[in-house]
Amino acid sequence: MDKYEKVIALARRRGFIWPAFELYGGAAGFYDYGPLGAPLKRKIEDLWREFFVIKEGFCEIECPTIGVEDIYVASGHLSGFSDPLTECKECGEIYRADHLIKHIIEVPDALSGEEIYTVIQENDIFCPECSGDLSQIYEFNLMFKTAIGPGSRQAGYLRPETAQGMFINFPRLLRYYRDRLPFGAVQIGKSYRNEISPRQGVIRLREFSQAEAEIFINPRDKSHPRFDEVEDLKLILYSEEDQEREGGQPREMTIKEAVDKRIIAHQTLAYYVARTYQFLMEAGLSRDRLRFRQHKKDEMAHYAADCWDAEASLERFGWIELVGVADRTDYDLRSHMAQSQTNLSVFVPFDKPRRQEKLVVKPDMKKLGPIFRNKAKAVAEALKSLDIEELEKETISVVVDGETVEIGSDLVSFEMVEETIRGEEIVPHVIEPSFGIDRILYTVLEHSCYEEMVDEETRTVLKLRPKVVPIQVAVLPLMDRDELMAPAEEITDVLKARGIYVEYDSSGSIGRRYRRNDEVGTPYSITVDYKTLEDKTVTIRDRDTMAQVRAGVDELPDTILALLREELEFGEAGVPLRS
Question: Are 260 and 317 members of one domain?
Answer without folding.
Answer: yes
